[in-house]
Amino acid sequence: MATPFDPADLPTGILMTLSPLVARVLAPNPSPFTYTGTQTYLVGGADVAVIDPGPDEAEHLDALIAAIGGRRVVAILCTHTHRDHSPAARPLSALTGAPIIGCAPLTLSDDGPRADAAFDADYRPDRVLGDGEAVAGTGWTLAAVSTPGHTSNHLCFALVQDKALFTGDHVMGWSTSVISPPDGDMTAYMRSMQRLLERDDIVYYPAHGEPVENPQRLVRGMMGHRKQREGQIMRFLERNGDSAIPDMVAEMYKGVDPRLYGAAGRSVLAHLIDLNGRGMAAPLEDGRWQMR
């Protein structure tokens, strides 16, 4: 019998080369929401950019400095400001002198149970990249692709030379992204997914999970999954009438790790808000939802 896969068993702190321009270092922060942990990417050769520096943990910072190996760091790029992605930007900037560049700062408190990492309240970028703006080094260019949905400030970064896209948490290699209101927005997420579907990237490098080598197929599948979930919600309301979100989660997420029920509930809420905006569902004063 095969030994069950345990994400915590994967080696952390080791520089793994993925292409001539791309390498990664896995942070030691596996969890039900980060899978094996946050993957920090190094892009370049003679000089490098660091994408999603990860949590501010001494072990991870030491591993990143060893991986950089004295090369000049052109930029420290953050896809978004959840605490498993951006906090190491500050100490890494202090150690390397590199500017923090990428997504806009964003801090807010969720109005329900946390569905993923909280926001990094101390994130202060030296430069915010707008959609299409780029950072370049010797033989590489990274262009920002605005992808709101998981968070309103989420960016992906396109490596022009490889037709590769660093997708942060917008598209992950192991699970669908958490969409948690009030900042997480299902309507924006689906628009962003459609945008990726129309691109010609040949590989995705997510912050969690392995590289995705048929990205358009995965995006189509993830969009289909969201449409199926939307259909489940509508059928539940049709069958049961006015309903509470925990009741929907109990039926629709059977077999899911109970630790993920909070995230599931936030995802259902995101779908309901989207359905409300499209005139298909409506909230009631007691927290339940009904069909329109």
UniProtKB/TrEMBL annotation:
Spell out the protein name for this chain.
Metallo-beta-lactamase domain-containing protein
Q: Which InterPro entries match?
A: LACTB2_WH (IPR041516), Metallo-B-lactamas (IPR001279), RibonucZ/Hydroxyglut_hydro (IPR036866), Sec-metab_biosynth-thioest (IPR050662), WH-like_DNA-bd_sf (IPR036388)
Q: Which residues form the Metallo-beta-lactamase domain?
A: 37-208
The organism that produces this protein has a lineage beginning with:
Bacteria, Pseudomonadati, Pseudomonadota, Alphaproteobacteria, Sphingomonadales
SMART domains xref list: Lactamase_B
Q: Which domain of life is it from?
A: Bacteria
List the Gene3D superfamilies. Ribonuclease Z/Hydroxyacylglutathione hydrolase-like, Winged helix-like DNA-binding domain superfamily/Winged helix DNA-binding domain
Query: Where are the annotated coiled coils located?
Result: none
